[in-house]
Amino acid sequence: MELKKREKILAIATGGIVALAGLYWVLSGTGGTTNYSLAELRRQCEAKRAELEKKQNLLRGQKANAEKLAAWEKISLPTRPDAARSAYQRWLRDTANKAKFRTADIFSSEGQPRKGV
Fold it and tell me: Which of 24, 33, 62, 116, by CA, is between 20 and 30 Å from 72?
């Protein structure tokens, strides 16, 4: 099958356009979607690694602080005043008995507001 003159011109033009597009794609380095050099990609990778390390260090610090807070909450008095008073009296009575005080009678009253405190 022989091509007519018009078909030959159309085929050559189409081939030229495809060749130019292929040449552009090859020369752009990454298929024409983005134009990053290898050095730029490595720099971005290092920046992301540094950011990840910073966030991991922050997370480790927060976990350590949470563990400390949990330990402090475990040994602290309850938040309710009546329960705290009772727990403190029990601890004070036990400490006085261990120290072998003669009388370990402990009385408590409601807290009183004081001036200047």
Answer: 116
